Amino acid sequence: MELMFDTGNISQIKTYANVFPFSGVTTNPSILKKEGKVNIWDHLREIRNIIGPEKSLHVQVTTDRSDEIIKEAYKIVQQLGKETYIKIPVTIEGLQAIQFLKTEDFHITATAIYTMAQGDYAILAGADYIAPYFNRMENINIDAKAVIRHFSHVIQAFHKETKIVAASFKNMGQVMSAFECGAHSATVDPSLLADSLKMPAIQGAIDRFKEDWESVYGKGASFLNL
Ligand SMILES: O=P(O)(O)OC[C@H]1O[C@](O)(CO)[C@@H](O)[C@@H]1O
User: Fold this and answer.
1) In which broad location class does this protein mainly occur, judging by the first location in its UniProt entry (predicted)?
2) What range defines the domain where residue 82 resides?
3) What is the residue with the minimal CA distance to atom 4 of ligand 1?
4) pLDDT value, residue 128
């Protein structure tokens, strides 16, 4: 089970990097748009520096033709390191690029996945991760859970190495459902993760512990001053 941060925001990554046990950072052009017209290589290098060498960084290509996608992949690894995951939408051109890049030992995250067929092609092409779009599938009445269960079954039944990084979440219920259906990983906006710890019931329980403790040992008492 893995959690990834679905953000390109430096301060958000810094804030939550020491809070959540995360495995990597995923970006796409829409996520990076939110940062404005930054120097993109400096920005992505800074993300890499913050998360360190062990965690994965997923960067999406911005072109459509397979030859351009391949060139972009080379440029991305030249700028950010060979361990960078190249995110490629599963289209005819994208699939062609994925197959080629796997022969060159690139790390690939196949993305923009709405259907079982798209994911299956990417698994067969040797993608390291496939990213099914949970919320976007639900928005158009595709059964996201069935799609993820299908990928999980295919990967296990045919002994494939591909991992499912479920993506496009609008609430934590969707994230938990994705894991229950067999996703290995989920990429989530860190503020959604933080919100899941801010429930009034959690704070209520903590307040009660404090109240009980202080009723015996006095206000402000803790193991530090007893
Ligand atoms: O529907 P949304 O929130 O735009 O999400 C699209 C998803 O696509 C991805 O690019 C897939 O990895 C994620 O970064 C993102 O979660």
Assistant:
1) cytoplasm
2) 2-195
3) 168
4) 98
Q: Are residues 142 and 217 in the same domain?
A: no
Report the CATH number that the domain containing residue 82 is assigned in CATH.
3.20.20.70
Give this prediction's pTM.
0.96
Residues 43, 44, 47, 49: is their CA dihedral positive or negative?
Answer: negative
Q: In the chain, what is the greatest distance between 2 CA atoms, to the nearest angstrom? A: 71
Of the residues 87, 160, 198, 219, only one is catalytic, namely 87
Shared-domain flag, residues 226 and 168: no
Q: How far apart are alpha carbons 208 and 185 in whole angstroms?
A: 35
User: Kind and range of the H or E element at 117?
Assistant: helix 116-124
- Please give the distance, rounded to the nearest whole angstrom, from the Cα atom of residue 221 to the centre of ligand 1: 46
With a cut of 50, which residues of the chain have pLDDT below it? Answer: none
Burial of 66 (0-12, 13-18, 19+ CB in 10 A): buried
204 and 93 share one domain = no
Give the count of domains, the chain.
2
The 10s digit of each residue's pLDDT in 128-183 is 999 999 999 999 999 999 999 999 999 999 999 999 999 999 999 999 999 999 99
Among 3, 25, 31, 164, say which to mutate for ligand 1: greatest number of ligand atoms within 8 Å of CB. 31
User: Domain check: are 188 and 209 in the same one?
Assistant: no
